[in-house]
Amino acid sequence: MALLLKRLNPDISQYRDRRFPGTQEEFEKCLKESTTLYIGNLSFYTTEEQIYEVFSRAGDIKRIIMGLDKNQLTPCGFAFVVYYTRADAEDAVKYISGTIMDDRPVRVDFDWGFKDGRQFGRGRSGGQVRDEYRTDWDAGRGGYGNIVKQE
Ligand code: GTA
């Protein structure tokens, strides 16, 4: 019963994609059924091969989509991993979240599903939004955040 309640909990992800083309209910339904995961807090230097190596431990991978800076077209610290089955995606969330890759704990989040265009950072500078606002130095993610760099 506890497991069932957990599975139906709408807080399956803290993240809400403001560009999702539907209602909150439709968004939550996608999250509960999807075989797509968002992998965050990656180093810009982590490769698709490394992601494959780690995430295939949870099951066969259908597709990996690297997140790209929309201006430079270089990796900008996230990826989508698509499994063939929901069970494998759930195992990856359970067992791979927090795994250290290139000295950083990766964040594994359920995702509503990949659509073309979602591979690009949405920050004004081309990378991820979080890298616009960061005030700390992060060598694996291009140094200071973009707003600090511009000051
Ligand atoms: N499933 O957690 C996620 C996730 N994130 C963070 C991004 N994506 C995610 N998908 C899932 N789970 O396809 C997806 C997006 C898109 C791609 C790139 O990755 O759906 P993005 O990171 O560039 O832009 O997305 P996004 O997601 O639209 O940014 P958002 O939600 O505004 O902000 C993300 C984080 O940035 C916030 O949680 C916060 O930490 C920081 N941030 C945002 N605004 C500010 C601000 N004004 N000041 C300080 N920090 C801020």
Please give a handful of descriptors for the protein shown.
151 residues, alpha+beta, 4-stranded antiparallel sheet, two-stranded antiparallel sheet, 6 helices, 6 strands, 29% helix, globular, binds P1-7-methylguanosine-P3-adenosine-5',5'-triphosphate
**What percentage of amino acids are in beta strands?**
15-25%
Number of helices: 6
> Distance N terminus to C terminus?
53 Å
Mean pLDDT metric: 93
Ions, cofactors and other ligands present here are: P1-7-methylguanosine-P3-adenosine-5',5'-triphosphate
Query: Spans with pLDDT under 50 lasting ≥5 residues?
Result: 5-10
How many DSSP E strands?
A: 6
What is the helix/strand order?
HHEHEEHEEEHH
Largest sheet: 4 strands, antiparallel
Which structural class matches the secondary elements? alpha+beta
Name the helicity range: 25-40%
- How would you describe the shape? globular
Computed over alpha carbons, the radius of gyration is: 16 Å
Strand order of the largest sheet: 2-3-1-6
